[in-house]
């Protein structure tokens, strides 16, 4: 019986040793797996942080770029408004010239056109008060065979200058049209004077 007890004892000791070995091996395996998972989680955390930092940097750059563009556009818009005001005021200055200067402007402008044929002279209300039949007669004498000007009863809706009209075709010498035709040519120079 002692042999059976010894055998049983040995089997139990072996089983206990085996159990301890299996538990130690399982603990070691658990620690390896846990260690790998922690390392992978840290790696993933690092990637996520790097990606978030890169996205934050990109977003910050986009916001700054957008704000800079908005400021530049607002500044450009304000400059264009100032330039527009300068050209609008130049029309007002032209509209305020003296009556004699206005009549000289009409005469020299029409004579510089060369052969114009029959034309109706359209003026605004202020122009109608300055131009009389004597002026029209003198103008036609100066034109000779190059043209025949008649004063139109139509009152133009413009600040100053005049329009010559014949059969629906107009030669627009209003101050607005003249300033507008020079605007593209002079805009850069005006901007330089105003903003440099």
Word description of this protein:
The protein has helices at 2-95, 99-112, 125-130, 133-143, 175-195; strands at 117-123, 147-155, 161-166, 169-174. 74% of the residues lie in helices and 14% in strands. The protein has 196 residues and is an alpha+beta fold. The protein has a four-stranded mixed sheet. Helix 1 (2-95) packs across helix 5 and helix 2 runs parallel beside helix 4 (133-143). A hairpin with a 2-residue loop joins strand 3 and strand 4. The protein folds into two domains: 1-85; 97-195, 2-Layer Sandwich (hypothetical protein PF0899 fold), CATH 3.30.2320. It has five helices and four strands, in the order ααβααβββα.
The proportion of residues forming helix, as a percent range, comes to over 70%
Using only C-alpha atoms, the radius of gyration works out to 47 Å
Order of helices and strands: HHEHHEEEH
Content of β-strand? 5-15%
N-end to C-end Cα span = 117 Å
Under CATH, the topology of the largest domain can be stated as hypothetical protein PF0899 fold
CATH architecture of the largest domain: 2-Layer Sandwich
Function: Produces ATP from ADP in the presence of a proton gradient across the membrane.
InterPro entries: ATPase_E_C, ATPase_V1_Esu
GO biological process, one term: proton motive force-driven plasma membrane ATP synthesis
GO cellular component, one term: proton-transporting two-sector ATPase complex, catalytic domain
């Amino acid at each position: 019986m002692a042999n059976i007890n010894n055998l049983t004892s040995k089997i139990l000791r072996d089983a206990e040793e085996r159990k301890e070995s299996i538990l130690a091996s399982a603990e070691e395996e658990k620690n390896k797996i846990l260690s790998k998972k922690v390392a992978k989680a840290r790696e993933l955390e690092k990637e996520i942080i790097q990606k978030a930092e890169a996205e934050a940097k990109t977003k910050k750059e986009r916001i700054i770029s957008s704000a800079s563009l908005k400021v530049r556009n607002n500044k450009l818009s304000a400059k264009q408004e100032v330039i527009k005001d300068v050209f609008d005021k130049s029309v007002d200055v032209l509209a305020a010239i003296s009556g004699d200067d206005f009549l000289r402007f009409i005469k020299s402008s029409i004579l510089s056109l060369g052969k114009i044929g029959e034309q109706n002279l359209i003026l605004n209300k202020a122009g109608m008060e300055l131009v009389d039949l004597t002026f029209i007669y003198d103008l036609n004498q100066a034109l000779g065979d190059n043209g025949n000007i008649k004063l139109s009863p139509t009152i133009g809706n413009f600040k100053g200058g005049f329009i010559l009209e014949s059969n629906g075709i107009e030669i627009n010498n209003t101050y607005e049209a003249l300033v507008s035709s020079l605007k593209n040519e002079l805009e850069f120079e005006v901007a330089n004077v105003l903003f440099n």
